[in-house]
Amino acid sequence: MREILRVMKALSDETRLRIVAALDGRELCLCQIVELLGLANSTVSRHMSILYQAGIVRSRKDGRWNWFRMADEDGTQAQAAVALVMRSLAADDRIRDDAQRLKQILSVAPEILCRQRNSPPC
């Protein structure tokens, strides 16, 4: 029961739902997520930590860059909850707006995004 409670708590926040939708089918650098959400690196890092601890996302480090993707362990409660949420979010205007904005963000290299925001590499 603790696992499903952790997952449901992680998915009970609008920002984290936006992150989950953005990561659907792709891997994103922290700076790309920061750019999409318009939040501070530290705030986004905290959200990513919650999603990671719930088993919803996985991360990898590539030099100074932190990359995130959806966890791919089939059959987990986290995966079942995320699948349900993704179906529910498909028609959400905010998620569609994020998808359009993400296309623009992905056309810019992560190094440039960090430089534009005057922030250290993520």
Write down the domain tally: 1
Rg result: 14 Å
Q: Distance N terminus to C terminus?
A: 34 Å
What strand line-up does the widest sheet have? 1-3-2
Shape: globular
Could you give a quick summary of the protein structure above?
With 122 residues, the protein is mainly alpha-helical. It has helices at 2-10, 14-23, 30-37, 41-53, 77-89, 93-106, 110-116; strands at residues 28-29, 57-62, 65-70.
How would you explain this protein's 3D organization?
By secondary structure, the chain is mostly helical. The protein has one domain (2-116): Orthogonal Bundle (Arc Repressor Mutant, subunit A). It is 61% helix and 11% strand. The protein has helices at residues 2-10, 14-23, 30-37, 41-53, 77-89, 93-106, 110-116, and strands at 28-29, 57-62, 65-70. Strands 1-3-2 form a 3-stranded antiparallel β-sheet. Strand 2 and strand 3 (65-70) form a beta hairpin. The chain starts with a helix and ends in a 6-residue tail after the last helix.
Which SSEs are present, and which pair or pack?
Blueprint: H1 2-10, H2 14-23, E1 28-29, H3 30-37, H4 41-53, E2 57-62, E3 65-70, H5 77-89, H6 93-106, H7 110-116
Antiparallel strand pairs: 1-3, 2-3
Key features of this structure:
3-stranded antiparallel beta sheet, Arc Repressor Mutant, subunit A, about 120 residues, single chain
